[in-house]
Design goal:
Layout: E1 18-22, E2 25-29, H1 32-44, H2 46-49, E3 52-58, E4 64-69, E5 73-74, E6 76-79, E7 88-91, E8 99-104, E9 107-112, E10 117-118, H3 119-132, E11 140-143
Antiparallel strand pairs: 1-2, 1-3, 3-4, 4-6, 5-10, 6-7, 7-11, 8-9
């Protein structure tokens, strides 16, 4: 079972460096290991929750990367801390516009399947983002 505690904003304590948001509920994480553990739990819980788009924010910058969990393929979506464009979405190897959908904020969000990548690769890209604060160069990105 996944427990998401509702918290507002990023904490002021220095040891909390990430905020993970799912369906408008936030949980703070102090390390990459914590982020990985929480995302593992959410991915496993998808059997009951359905596919979810989960946002991970770096508290210092406000930059966030959302990841689709619960399916074999995922979509990543980046937003800077300013919440202003440009926004970036992952681009995969499939040249297909059929939809892939994840729940985000209680609503279904659809993306073209061409924006999906294997979830294992998406998880590594998320780790890279958490460590560097930048988008990984290991996948292609398109500007929204």
């Amino acid at each position: 079972m996944v427990t998401i505690k509702f918290l507002s904003g990023c904490p002021t304590e220095r040891f909390n460096v990430f905020t993970i948001e799912i369906n408008q509920h936030r949980q703070h994480a102090a390390s990459l290991d914590d982020v990985d553990r929480i995302l593992d739990e959410l991915h496993a819980a998808s059997a009951s929750l359905g596919p979810q788009l989960v946002s991970v924010e770096i508290c210092e910058s406000g930059d966030s990367l959302a990841i689709g969990l619960g399916l074999a393929r995922s979509v990543l979506n980046y937003m800077s801390g300013s919440k202003e464009p440009p926004y970036f979405t992952s681009t995969g190897e499939l040249d297909v516009d059929e939809p892939i959908a994840f729940r985000f904020g209680g609503e279904w969000s659809e993306f073209p399947l061409r924006n999906s990548i294997p979830t294992s690769i998406a998880r590594q890209v998320m780790r890279d983002f958490c460590v560097t604060g930048k988008l990984s160069r290991n996948i292609q990105w398109e500007q929204d």
